[in-house]
Amino acid sequence: MAAAIRATDTILIAAAPREVWRVLTDFGRYQAWWPGNVPVRALETPPELVGAELEIRPRGGPPFRCRLERLVAEEELVFRYCAGPYQGTGTWRLAWTGGGTAVSYTADLTSDQWLLRLFSRLTDLGRAHSRLMRPVLAGLRRTVSGRPERRSGWPREELI
User: 55: Cβ–Cβ under 8 A, 6 or more apart, which residues?
Assistant: First the structure.
């Protein structure tokens, strides 16, 4: 049976969706705000963005690639996990709350890799994914807010 990774993580950013969108769609600059233990790089970025591909190499985990499959401007980016041990989607969603933008990332993944299947019997892989996403979301908030980077350790910001 395939291992399942399902998680949604959300953070509130005191900015308009267009400001968050600008950072989320600047794939070449992801490495500036993603934590050092989750290196990411843009492999290609077409002008229309759909088809852009990212390579992620989390320390302690297998590398993988995601391709932007669909977008709704200032609302949603849907990535298909296209190479590596995962199958499924990762979706960024933005929603204006009146006081800022709620930003969420939803992972809806499976894996047939034997090691991940074994780990899924021992731990909640969705929870493990959320631990990796906390500093990613905090880095996004700092970048949108124009605050200095804090790339090591756990973020002090609270997620919602």
Answer: 40, 41, 43, 63, 64, 65
